[in-house]
Fold:
Amino acid sequence: MNDAGPSPARLLDGLAALLDNHPHTRHLIVGYSGGLDSHVLLHLLATNRACWPGRTLAAMYVDHGLQAASAGWGEHCAHICHGLDISFRALRIDARPLPGESPEAAARRTRYAALAAELEPDAALLTAHHRDDQAETLLLQLLRGAGPHGLAAMPTASHLGPGWLLRPLLEVDRSELLDYALEHGLRWIEDVSNTDTRFDRNYLRQRILPLLRERWPAVGRNLARSARWCAETADWLDADADADLARVAAQRPDALHIPALRELGEPRQRNALRRWLRRLGLPVPDARQLRHILHDTLTAARDRQPCIRWPGGEVRRYRDMLHALPPPLAHDARQTFIWRHETNAYPPLDLPGLGTLRLRATFGEGLRAETLAGAALTIRFRQGGERFRPVGRHHGQELKKLLQEAGIPPWERDRLPLIYLPSMLALPHEGGGNPSLLAVVGLGIAAEVAAGPGEPGFLPVLQSPSATGFGIL
Structure:
C-alpha cells in the first residue's frame, strides 16, 4: 500500500473543494475510458453522490475507432455504469490526423471537441488526470521547447466549450488510485497500447520516470509544483498580452491593426499573438511558424496578401489588418438555398461550411418587416456583376467595389450570403441597384427595404463555426 494510504477522505476533500469552487456546475460528466484512473473517479463520485445534492452524474466514453477492441471497451463501460446507476453515452469520433499532426494530438483534439459539443453552460467534464500525468505532460512540453504556457501543463479547471473541464485528481499519485481500486475490488480495462514505447508519453512513463524516481523519489510532486509556478507566470504574461491586445484590437475579434502591432517589441508581439490565437480557439503555431508570421505579414507591403498556415489555423494579411482563422472549408459559391417562413418566423438556416444564418428582430434597423411578410427568401453568393445600393448610398454600385471599400477581406467575399426576395424582381426601382437583393450579410441592407426609425425590422446575422461570424456592418 502507498504510505499515504488510499484514503477516500483525502480524495474526496480535493473533489469537494473543486466542486465548491464551481457551484454553478449542476451536471457532472465523467470522461470514462474504462481504465483504472477514470474508473476510480467514477466510483468515487457514484458512491458519494449524496455529498453533492442537486447535481446529476453521467459518464461518456469516446470511441476513437483506432483499435479493434474499442467497441468492446465501450460495452464494458456501459456495464459498469449500469451497475453504478449512472447515465452512460458512447461517442464515436473520426480521429484521423490532419496533415502534419501526430496521431496522439489528433485523438486528443477530436476527443475534446466531441466532449465539448455535449456540454451546456452548467455542465462540467471531469477527467481522472493525476500527478503522474502532470509530470509526464511537463516533461513532454519541456522536451518540445515549450514556454510557460506549455510548462504549466494541465490546469485544475479550464473552460471547455460552453462548460468546464475539471481535473480533481491532479494532486494524487497514481499509486493511490491503484490502492483505492484494489481495496474496492474494481475491474478495469488494461489498454496494451499504453505500454507501446513508440509513443512519447509511454516512453517517458515506462522508461524515464522510473529511473528518475530511483534517484529523486519526489519527482512527481516536484514537477507538479514547477507546473504550478509556470501557470502563475503564464497568467502574468496573459495579463500583459491582454493590455497589448487592447491597444492593437480591430473592430472584429479575429483581426489586429498591423501598424499598432509593429510598435510593440518582438517579445511582446509574440506574446500578444499567442494570446490572441488562444482566445480565438486556434492552435498556437510553433516558434518557427510564429517567426514567419511576424516577418512575412508585419513587414510585407500594404498591397501584399501573405498567408501563413499551420495545422488547424492560418494567418492572413489584408491591407493594414492581420486576420486569423481556421482552415476554410470547401465552399461552392454556385449553390442556392431557399429560406422559408415557418410558424411566424424564419427558422435558423444552416449554410454548410459557413455557419447559421438568423434574422434577429429589431426596431429602426435591418430589413423592414412588412417587406418580408412571410415570403420565401433565396440565399445566393456573389457570382460577379451584382449591383447593390446599401443604406446611405444615393446610387447603386458594383458589389465588388462596395466590398473593397468596406475592407472585407478577399477570401470572405464569395462566402457572404446574399439575401434575395424573388417577388421584387418586377417592381420598379431607383438608384441603379438590384430590387430583389435585400441584403448582403456583412455589408448592409438595401436602402429601399431598410426599416425606418421606430419601424420593426429583422437584422440578418451569420454566426460562423469559429464564433466570430459576419454581421451587418
Summary: Residues 1-6, 467-473 have pLDDT under 50 and may be disordered.
